[in-house]
Amino acid sequence: MEFHDLRDLSKKQLYQCALLLNKELPIGWNKVEDAQNEISEQLEADGYFYALIDSGQLIGWGGILPCYSGNVYEIHPMVIDSKYQNKGFGGLLIKYLEDKARFLGGLTIYAASDDESDDRRSSLRDADGYDDIYDKMKHFDPKNHPARFYMKHGYQLIGIMPDANGRGKHDLILSKKL
């Protein structure tokens, strides 16, 4: 199993990355072309993007983007093929991204995770994002939302962007000290 810089991948492998993004995160990238555009845009940015490949098979991929003069890094995006989820691969990828951010001088790493899917919702989904939000965050339950994965790896819910994806569909902000 190896990590590969996306900039070193073939066009075919980058297409596989786009297919995976579209398959696993269709709300954000509901067409393969959208996923391809996302990859192209990110590769032109100042970020760092890596694919986890085992015996020629793409397991997943993710990236980090510098913010706040490099003191903070945003994980964007991060995706693991569903057939490899809950087998430790996501943990390997997130640790690799964290180690890279730390090596680059990052002090904090964060992820913004949309709470808009009907089948992967947290306790904040459909809640009023302005009514006693601190109490709601204090009693936050990720349920089967991807926030559960981040929290398992030491991330804390530090805020939300209310209604980012429509009424009651917030963007959850999770961060971790490096």
Automatic annotation (TrEMBL):
Domain N-acetyltransferase: 4-178
SUPFAM superfamilies assigned: Acyl-CoA N-acyltransferases (Nat) (SSF55729)
Signal peptide: none
Gene Ontology MF terms in the entry: acyltransferase activity, transferring groups other than amino-acyl groups
Entries under InterPro entries matching the protein: Acyl_CoA_acyltransferase (IPR016181), GNAT_dom (IPR000182)
Name by which UniProt lists this protein: GNAT family N-acetyltransferase
